[in-house]
Each structure stands twice: as structure tokens, then as C-alpha cells.
Amino acid sequence: MNTLESGLSDVAADTLMPDVQQAIATLYPGPDVPFNPAAVDAAQAFLTRVQLMQEAWLLPPRLLDPAQSPETQFVGAIILREKIASQFSSLPRADLPAIHQVCLTSLLAAAAQSSRRLVLKLSSALASLVVQAAAADLLGGPLEDPILSTIAMIESARLQNAAETSQSHLCAIANFLLMIAEEYHKAILQSSARQRARAVLLQNVTAVLSTAIALYDPTLHQQLVYSGQLPASVSTQHFNPATLSAQLGPSSDNLRADAAAAMAAWIEYLPLVYSQRDPSSSTVLVIFDILLQALVDPVLLQAVMDHDDAASTLANSATDVISAVLASSPSDVGQQLLPRVASLAPTFASALAQPSEADTVIFLLTNILASLFHAHAGAFVRISTEEELSVCLALVHMLVGCVAIEGCFGRDETVSGAALEPLHDFLYELGDHSDASVQTAISMFAPVFSSLVHAALAKATIPLDFDSWQAQERMAWREHRVQLGELIARLMDVWRMPCLAQINSALVNAVNASLDPTPTDSRWVSVEAALFALKALAESVSSPEIEAAVLELLRQIASLPPLHFRVTFNTLSCFGAFAACVRKDGELLGKVLTTTVNSLADSRLVQAASTTLLRLCNEAGGSLVPWLDQLLDACLTLNQTLEAGDAARAQLHLQQRKQRAALQQHRASVAGSRSTQSTAIAKLRHVQQQHMDWIEVVTALCHVISWAPPDQLLGLTERLAGPCTARLQQLASQLGDESYLNAVLVDADMREALLDTISREFRCLARMCLHIDPAAARQSEEDDEMDGFVNVDGDDDSARLRLQNAYRQSQLQEQQQADEQQRQLRQQQFMQQSLQASQQGAQPVASLVAMTWPAVSAILTQLSRLAAAFKDSALDQEAVDQVVLAGCLALKNALRTVRGGLLEFVPVLVETIEQYHAMAPSAGFLDLACPLLAQFGVVENCLPSMALLVSRLGQTNLSLFATAGLDGHPTVLAGHFSLCASILGLPQLSAGAECWQVLSATFQLACQALPVVQLGNIDPIANFLEKTARASDRSPAVSQLLQEEGLNLTHQLFLSIGGAQPRGAWPLLGKVLFVLAKRLGQSFVQWAAQVLGIEGFPSPHVSEQQKRDFLQQIVRTSAQSTPKQFNSNVVDFGFLCCGFTAGASRTAVL
């Protein structure tokens, strides 16, 4: 191939070759050349760009020359494969035979050199060429029969080469067959093209599988052919499988593994047609039987247990083929395969007897069972004969035996977890049916279910030496125990009362054993395991009968004497899981609350107690009001414990600072310091967990307080919020001390502790503001209006499509009238809420804000000073911003909960946001401004202050972006566009001069930012532009702005889609295009035609005809299709701009 139809010749390739060879030399430097990461990255980027060029079709023949270095040939093979797989449509059809010859010749040369790495990559390239040519209906000439002819040519080359390379050539055949299936699976093709490729592959499936068997074992293949069990393979003058055994003897391990992998790929990736008339069906079943027999060969299994690499590879490959057959076979064929898999039972039992030595064998056999149960679990429901029942019981018993392996998972054994997934599939299949046949099947499996519960309880029993395990082992055991709990829960859905009865029996027996007059320290573990199993059943209480049984069981548990703190922990967890049942029994509820409150004093039980208390409060609600004093006392006691922990934490920080100072003088004490530091970190983590539990307790009590009588509500709120208010005041006082603030600026440990404390108190305040209000505690989730994303657009796009142009003006007037009516209604509702709030008197959130506002305001002031001081340290500034976000969230929750009750705080809030944001811009203040504007932007008296707030925030942000750049403050940038998007939903506010100035400048900023900002900020920008386009119907100012700047916006959108933004941004930008095309109609078409008419824009890879076709598509689909279909066209155009076929994925990096 010397010249392409595009006019490129060898000169183009000769020009590129020196640079390409230099890049390859950079990627693969010699041993004496130092590694240069920057140069390697540059070389890799250069080769990726070269890969996209049309001239790159001329490079592989030169790079794959046997005279080149192995690295150069390998890069040439990569380029060849990626060009074929991703850019086949750019290959001139006249050059297809030449490219095929390059692939085949290079593959034969690589096989002769026994270069396995190069053989694999060239096999992939040749296979991709076959698949792409078949999909494009270009088979003919040298590609008339591409699969069989390639096999024959490789075999011919094998016979002509030295005997030493015979196995290499046969491996090339096996890899070629493997890669055909994989390339067909990975290729992104249209449905018609995929059907053409599949038809070609199905014509050869029998010959391919037969050939793979011949490569796997030539002698066995010959015997099967003579007996008629297997059709003859590719019996041509160049390739006769019957002669392989005589010529070569047994196949090598690599060859057998490659052949098995090829069989697995064809069976898994190519949907086969199983029928008696199709010889491939019988071939597949013969292969299944052969490999199943090979897998139970004692010699092979012993080699696998001896960790022989070749035997393990072969066993894995055989397992893959068997699993592929099971996964792809239809139900009638699967029914035939069940007895064959059940024949593995003796081998499986032998492996389970020595799990530590035979763990690999257990994994292999369990993978086969997993494929069987995943694809054919329905066969276990349709049992009609004793023989079928025997087979199914044997298969399930194999999995239960795997679960019951002796030893602790994660330490003594690691294989029992492999059986859980197929058991889940089995139980899900039984649980999804309720007819009589399934109930009969469930009764048949009762002995198996009983064994499964017994095994699960045994595996879930905590080891006595658990605390001495390594962290990784403890984590693996805990995860396995969670999976066992999920399995028990699923079994409960199927087996119901018998399952509960067996767990009840296990619990009773364990309790009786633990109460023996001479108990041992180890008997509590059985009680703990039974409680864990009972807790797992919480989601399965689906009938009054089960609920009554559970309640009786909970009453017994509530009377248990103290055995061990882990038993108490799981007892609390049980009460929390069954909170819906507990609340129905007043006496039991009292006992549970007493146990829970007492447990709050034990640091080991605080986590379980707080979670249980939260669930009980959510379920019981007003029923817990009589216990409020007791609960509040326990809460305050826990708070005192936390304060003591905070003091200990401060002491630890002081010790650390002293140790670091001592280390600078005494380096010899490094080891001892590390040990002390490790202990300190563990203690700090424990303190942090306790604070998280404290917030859960406060949340739970907020739910209860919200049910209290109105005359007690404010007093209870003050009592609960007292510790938080005191700590906020203390923090404000500390931050007001200049010497303390200077120390915080210098000492990282002090700063971290301070920010953690403030963040915790702000989060606690946010929880109280959200949950303590009586109305908010008992109403459903509000819509997103209070989040600042107000949508008053109100029109139906599908209805709009049916409107004629003659009615557009009348519709606009009606929409404006509706908007005005809605605005007046919202203002009236707001004033009613405000009046109602002032008349009610009992406003706990308003009282809470009044209590804490001075301290919160002072803290936010000092945090803004800290953020300004750390403007050169991104890490420290981000930490401060997170704390500011927590404080703003508390105020945001207060606004959302009280609605009109915070009218008196509006001037102070506006001033605070303006002042602090100007000092240290933060996304938290912008996020707080959104609900503030949404709530008070419809009130006449508040409009001036709201407009001033928008103006000052907008000016601050725009100045910041002008000086620091668009990527300097990404969170502020996103917050600014979200704020402006919420303003567009407030017509009266957005029409003001101050707000409009910000909106118009933000629109200009959005156009400028589209091609250059990071992907994470595209969403808020696109959302703002979309809302702007939607507002054009009801706002003449917005409509005029779009008419003036529409051409620029369209240019930036197409520039971003054409390559300036990555693939993830295209659907977001497509939404903007969709709304523009719908709302602006002919104006948008003119802008798009003008922009796309620029030569080489938005990408040189797109032709003028493709741009015209795309414009017609978006005009047509915007009027007739959904945004999803419209975005599909936009994404396809983006791929075209990048040089790919529509729908193709990006080219793999070298």
C-alpha cells in the first residue's frame, strides 16, 4: 500500500517516521538512559495524535518490518489495531487487501520469532479487521472466507518453518480465534452491522470450536471425530488436525489454555442458536463434557493444589468455558446440564475436607456453580421427578457445605464467601414465585435450609481472639458477616416461620447455656450470633403472625441479664431494627428505653444506643414524651463525657507539640514517638466517633421534643440546645482573642481541632433547626422551592409543539398574567405564614436562631478572616470553607423550617452574607443566599434588600473571576451560576436594574467560560443558560439579550462540543441547544448555519456535508423528539469532531 485514495503517499509516512521512532525511543529508553516522566508523557501524547491522522495507515508496514526493534514493532501493532478498530471507515476500500496482507504477514513473522506479546496484538488487529469488514459487508477476494483461510495460512507457515516454532504458530491460531470473539464483543456497531458480522461468525462456529478442541488435545479430537461425536474441523490441504498429534505430541500448557480461552470467548460473546439441526449445539455439549471430565482429573487437581502455574492456568480456562456454556445455554439445555454439574459433588466434598490446601479448587468449582445458579435457578422451581430433586439437592448441598467450611473467614479460610452469591440467586428465584409448585419445592428444600441456617450462625459467631486480629482480617470477617446476614434475611423471605423458629431455638439454647451455674467465658458468643441473625430479619416482618412471634422474642431479649458488652451492643441493634414492633408494646418500649439510656454512659455502646434511640424516636414519636426528662438527662450526661474527651484531645495535641519540639533535639526517640502518636490517633478517632453519636442522639431528641405540648416546647428546646449554645459562645470568645487566633494561624494541630469542633457544633445546630419544629417534623418532604431552584416556567413542552405561531403572542400574555397571579399568591401565602408564626408564639427554631445567632455571626466573621489568611494555601482554605458550609447549612435549614418566622433576621442575614462573602468568598454563603432569595424575593418590603444582596454578591464574584481566573475558585463559580439561575425564577426581582446587570454580565461570563472551565462546572453553567433560554418567553429583557448574544452563545456551544470540552459535557450542552432550538426557532437556525459555515469549525475532522446533516438533524429532532434523542445526535457529532465514527469510543492511549 504505497498510496491512499486520499492522495497521501509514502512521502507523508517518511516525514512522520523519524518523529515516531524518536517517540518510541523515548517510551522505551535503554538501561543507561534515566527515566524522564515529562518526556514519556509528551511522547505518548504525540503517538496518540499520530494515531488519529489519516497518514497513520502508512506507518504499520514500516514499523512492523522485522528489521525494526521489538518495541517498534509492538507500537506498530498497537497503531494498526487501533486504526482498524476505531477508524475503519477512514480506510480506503481499495487498500483493504493491502492492510489485510500487512496484518497476516506480520502475524506470521511474529509467530516465527515466537514473540507472544506481538502475536497477541497482531491477532487482535487481524481479528478486528475481519469483524469490521464483515460488519461493512466488504468480504471478498482475499477476505472471501477470512477465518478458515487465515487458519490455513498460519498452518502452512508452520509447516514451512522450523519445528521449534510449531507451538507458537498454533498459539497464533488459538489467539486469532479468541480475538475474533472479543473484537466482535467490544466493537461499537450499529444493529444492522452487528447482525451481518454475527451471521459471518455463526457460519464458522462449528469449525472454530472443533479447531479449538484439536488445539486443546489433538488425540482426543481425532477420537471424537472417528466416533462421530465431533464434526471434522478445517480439513484442507494445509491444515489437518488429525496429523497434529503425530507431529507434535501433547499440546503445551500455553496452547491448551489459549484454545480453552478461545472456546469460552466464542460461547460467551456470540449468542449461539441451540437446536438439534445446528451442529454447533452438539459441539458445545461435547466440549462441556470434555472439560468437565478434565476438571475432575485427580492429577490436574493435585497440580493445582501444589500451585503449579500451568495447571492453574489450564484449570481456570476450563472453568471459564464451562461457565460460559452454563451462562449462555437456554433453559431446556440447562436442564440437561444440571446432572453433569452434580457429578462434581465427590470432587467438591474432597476439596472441602482440606480447605486450606484446596482453596483454589473450591473457588473454581464454586464459580461453575455460580454460573449455573445465576442462569438456571428456575430449574430448581420446576422439579417434577425424584431424580431432578436428587440432583437439585446435591447442587444446593455443595454450596451449603462451602458456607459451612470450618475456620474463621478472613483468617483461617477465604473460600466460603464464594458460595453466598449463587445461594442468593437460588433464594431469589424461590422468593419470586408464590404458586403451589414453588411452595412444594420449598418444603422439599427444608432440610437444606435448616443446614444453611446452622452454618450461617456458626460462621457468624465472633472468635474470642477477634480483637487480636489484624485490621485487614477483622474487616474481611465483618464484611462476610454482613453478607451472611443478608443471606439469612433472604432465607426468611422464603422459609418464613420455620426460619424464625430455628433462630429462636438457637437463641434460647445459647441463653440457657450461658446461664449455666458454671458458665465459661465463651458461651456469650452464641447468644451474640443469634442476636445478629435476628437483627438481619428486621426487613422481613411481613405478617401479623411473624410480628407477634418477633414481639415475644423481643420481650425475652429485654429480660436478658448482662453477659458481655458485644451482646448488649447487638441487643440494642435488635431493638433499633425492630423499632416499628417495639413501639406497639408500651411495657417493652419502657424497658428498651431504659436499656438504651443506660447504655449511653458506656463509650463502647454509645454508637448502638444512639442509633437505636434515633430509630425509636422516629417510630414512636409522641409516645416518648413522658420519657423526655430521662432522655434529656442522659443526653446532657453524654455531653459532659464528650467535653471531657475534648479536654483529653487538647491535652494530646499539647503532648504532640512537645514531642515534635523534643524530636528536633533528640532524634533517637523517633520510634517511641511514633508509638505514642499511633495511640493518640486511635484515641482521637474514638472521640470523633463519639461526637457523631452525640449528633444522632440530639437528632433523636429533636423528634421527641417536636411532639411536646406547646407550653413546654421552648423550654425543652433551650435545655437541649444549651450545651451547643454554650460551646458556640465559648468558641466565639476564643476566636475573639487575638493571641489565640494567631496561635491557630501558626499551629496546624490547633487549627484542625478548632475547625473540627466548629464544624461539629454547626452540624448539630443544623440538625436541630431541621427536626425540632413541630410542623416540619410531621410533614412530608417539601419540594425543591426552598432550595433556591424555583421554577415558575410552568409550560408543557409537548403541548407547546402543537401550538401554531399565530397563537404565540396570546400565549405569552397569558403566561405573564399567570406569573403575576402566582407571584401575588406566593406573597400572600408568605405574609400569612409570617403572621401565623408571630401569633403562635411557640417557634423553637426561631428561638434557637435567636439564642445562637450572636455566636454564629462572630464565628463566621473569624472564619472569614482565617480563609483570607489562607488564600495562598488551597488545602487550609478548603478546610475553612467546609466549616463555613456547615454554618450556612444550619441557617438554611432554619429558613426552610420556619418559613416566614425569620423575617426580623433578614437585614442581619443580608448584611452578614454580604460582609463575609466580600472578605472571603465562599460557596456556602451563595448556597445560603438561594433559599433566602427564594423566600423573601417575593415580598414587597424585602425586594430592595434582596436586590442589593444580589448586586453585591454578583459584583464580588465577577471581580474574583476577573482576577483569579475561572478555574481559581471552582466552587464559588458553580455557586454563582446556581444563584443566578434561582434569580431567573423570580420575575419581579430579576427585572430590577441591579439584578439585571448581574444577570447580563453572568450571561457573558457563561459564554466565555463554556470552552475553558473544568468539566465539574459545566453543569451549573448549562443549567443557568437553559433557564435563561426558557425565561425568554416571559421576559423581554432576556429575549433581547439572547437576540444580541445568541450568535456568540451558539459559537461557544459548538466550539465546546467540537473538542474544547470532554465527552461528559456534551449531553449537558445538548440540553442548552435543545431549549435554544425550541424557544428561538428560526433565529437559532440562522446562528447555527452561520457558525457551522466557517471552514474547519468546530473541527477539521468534520466535512461540510456532515455539518449540514447535523444541522438538519437538530432542527428536526428539536421539534419532534425528546431531549434524550436530541442529545444522542449531539454526542455523535462530538465524536465526528474528534475524528471518530459516530458512536465510537475514544481511541485507546498507547
What does this protein structure show overall?
The protein is mainly alpha-helical. The chain has a domain at 1040-1150. It is 74% helix and 0% strand. It has 52 helices and no strands. Helix 1 runs antiparallel to helix 2 (37-52). The longest helix has 38 residues, at 628-665. The radius of gyration is 36 Å and the shape is globular. The model is unreliable at 1-8, 667-684, 779-812, 826-839 and 1142-1150 (pLDDT under 50).
In this structure, how is the largest beta sheet organized?
Answer: none
Query: What is the overall shape?
Result: globular
For the residues shown, what is the average pLDDT? 80
Ends distance: 24 Å
Radius of gyration (CA) equals 36 Å
Number of strands: 0
Q: Quaternary arrangement of the chains shown? A: single chain
Beta content comes to under 5%
**Runs with pLDDT <50, length 5+?**
1-8, 667-684, 779-812, 826-839, 1142-1150
Strand pairing plus helix content: what structural class? Answer: mainly alpha
Short description:
The chain has 52 helices and no strands. The protein has 1150 residues and is mainly alpha-helical.
List keywords for this structure.
mainly alpha; 1150 residues; disordered N terminus; disordered C terminus; globular; 52 helices
Topology:
Layout: H1 10-27, H2 37-52, H3 59-63, H4 70-87, H5 96-112, H6 116-135, H7 146-160, H8 166-186, H9 191-216, H10 218-227, H11 244-248, H12 253-269, H13 279-295, H14 298-305, H15 309-328, H16 331-342, H17 345-352, H18 359-376, H19 386-403, H20 420-431, H21 436-444, H22 446-459, H23 471-495, H24 497-514, H25 524-536, H26 544-558, H27 565-577, H28 579-582, H29 586-599, H30 606-620, H31 628-665, H32 670-705, H33 710-736, H34 738-746, H35 748-771, H36 774-777, H37 797-801, H38 808-840, H39 844-869, H40 874-898, H41 906-919, H42 923-936, H43 943-964, H44 970-984, H45 987-990, H46 993-1009, H47 1018-1030, H48 1036-1060, H49 1066-1080, H50 1082-1092, H51 1104-1120, H52 1123-1137
Protein name: Importin N-terminal domain-containing protein
Subcellular location: Nucleus
GO cellular component, one term: cytoplasm
